[in-house]
TrEMBL record:
Main subcellular localisation: cytoplasm
GO CC terms, sorted: axoneme
Keyword RNA-binding: no
One MF term in the entry's GO annotations: metal ion binding
Family indicated by similarity: Belongs to the cytochrome b5 family.
Superkingdom as given in the UniProt entry: Eukaryota
Ranges for domain Cytochrome b5 heme-binding: 4-70
Keywords for this protein: Cell projection, Cytoplasm, Cytoskeleton, Heme, Iron, Metal-binding
Organism: Strigamia maritima
Protein name per UniProt: Cytochrome b5 domain-containing protein 1
InterPro entries, alphabetized: Cyt_B5-like_heme/steroid-bd (IPR001199), Cyt_B5-like_heme/steroid_sf (IPR036400), Cytochrome_b5_domain (IPR052320)
Role description: Radial spoke stalk protein that binds heme under oxidizing conditions. Required for the coordinated beating of multiple cilia maybe by functioning in a redox signaling pathway.
Length: 216
């Protein structure tokens, strides 16, 4: 897959335990497994565990990427806002002797914890293996290239996916372009506007087997 990998919310949701915990926020996907190990047993993990595998964008300012803040009614000072409780690396609302920033960057700014991006447009497509007369349905990200989709197909359905030519409506697809860039229209918004199920029509990609076998 491309180095700038995209994930669907369903993929993020699979990582929902302290031994394998991801969250998404502001379009990013972050692996907090190491954070869970480091702060095992801490109350500061409770909000993160409660939202394991889910989106926590509501904790952050979408413009600055910083923690959301509010004006404290008692002090009149601007303080971090924790709607679900203070979490790991979040500063306390008042000066505290046990508060230290020796952890370095907070997890939401640590690029080493990022694993990719959350797709803004997830869609289901139909992949038809012409030789085998087999039809599979696959959830993909609109930002992905056909190569990326091919790798998803390979991981889920067909280990020889790299040995296929991909076509749509009789045209060979450019493997380095997205579906939209290949001229495959997204009709889901139109269906939504007229109250039709979004999956009433799924784009169909046809795969034609080549002679050269690839290794599993």
């Amino acid at each position: 897959m491309s180095t700038k990998r995209y994930f669907t919310p369903n993929e993020v949701l699979l990582h929902n335990s302290t031994s394998d915990l991801w969250v998404s926020f502001l379009g990013k996907v972050c692996n907090l497994t190491k954070v869970c190990q480091e702060y095992k047993g801490s109350d500061l993990l409770k909000p993160i565990k409660a939202f394991a595998g889910k989106d926590v964008s509501m904790w952050f300012n979408p413009k600055s990427g910083e923690l959301k803040t509010h004006i404290d009614q008692d002090t009149g000072l601007r303080q971090p806002c924790f709607p679900h409780g203070r979490f790991v690396h979040g500063p306390p609302p008042y000066p505290a002797s046990d508060w230290s920033t020796d952890f370095g960057l907070p997890w939401w700014k640590n690029k080493h914890l990022l694993v990719g991006n959350l797709s803004k447009n997830v869609k289901r497509i139909r992949i038809i293996n012409v030789l085998a007369s087999v039809e599979d349905t696959l959830e993909v990200c609109a930002e992905e290239t056909i190569n990326d989709i091919s790798e998803r197909y390979r991981a889920n359905f067909n280990s020889h996916a790299r040995s296929y030519t991909w076509k749509c409506e009789g045209r060979c697809l450019d493997m380095n372009k997205t579906m939209a860039e290949n001229g495959i229209l997204d009709d889901q918004p139109r269906f939504y506007r007229v109250n039709l199920p979004e999956d009433i029509y799924l784009p169909s990609l046809l795969v034609f087997y080549n002679d050269d076998l690839t290794e599993d």
